[in-house]
Amino acid sequence: MGDSVRIVEQGGIERDARLPYYEQLKQLILREIAQNGLEPGHLLPSETEMCARYGVSRTVVRQAVGELVTEGVLHRMRGKGTFVARPKLSEQFMESTVGFFEDMTSHGHSVSSTVLSIDRVEVAGRIRELMGTDAGAYCLEIVRQRAVNDEVVAFTKSYVNRDDLQLLEHLRAADLSKGSLYRILEDSFGLRIESGHRSIEATTASGMMAGLLGVGPGDPLLYVESVGRDAIGGVIECFRAWHRADRMRVEMDVVRDKRPGGALLAQARV
């Protein structure tokens, strides 16, 4: 981690301004980061130092810093302090059928995976709900840690809706550490995902998941479920993914439904 950076008062807190103190402090911190080119990993002054420097309460400092943490500008580490954060990664969420590999590489990122297992498993629990299969059916499960720019950011479980030993052996022989599962399914077996549905919700890291993602127990995660379908609506693949919330973000575009009286529709990216 870098040395503590000095936040210089550039105009300071204006006591008679209509803008709340915490919002003024946010702008001072953002200005310092931009003008001095502060890199990710630089340590900010402590709450006590910032209170003394700006003549504001600890509540003001906590609100300003807390909002910048939420916005992804700053990053807190327990027992170490608050640092300038690395920019979060944005993954396409709903408007495209491309997979994680194609999405990240299209934005210039390096993607690699550690394949933990590729097995034939019985369809059960949540995956059976997503696939809509009968009891006793089998599918192919691919479990991976996903890394972007050499940093683990997600843990995924992909389920291909085929009980096909030839496909199983093909996937085991393929290099999924640097390649795309969707590309293999399409190019080698004609399984092209044309549509689907994804959902996202907030969750926290358990002990095992925390270890897999390199975060602390209880740290926030983004949990994603997806169902990919072929041209006639048949399920090709489902996946469950746990993303580090400190490294990924949700973006949303809003468009008007073209139907008469249509409401605003959201197209999101995570």
From TrEMBL:
Domain of life: Bacteria
UniProt cross-references to SUPFAM superfamilies, sorted A to Z: Chorismate lyase-like (SSF64288), Winged helix' DNA-binding domain (SSF46785)
HTH gntR-type domain mapped to chain residues: 19-87
Record keywords, A-Z: DNA-binding, Transcription, Transcription regulation
CDD domains registered for this protein in UniProt: WHTH_GntR (cd07377)
Name of a matching Pfam family: GntR
Keyword Transcription: yes
SMART domains in the record: HTH_GNTR, UTRA
Name of the molecule in the record: GntR family transcriptional regulator
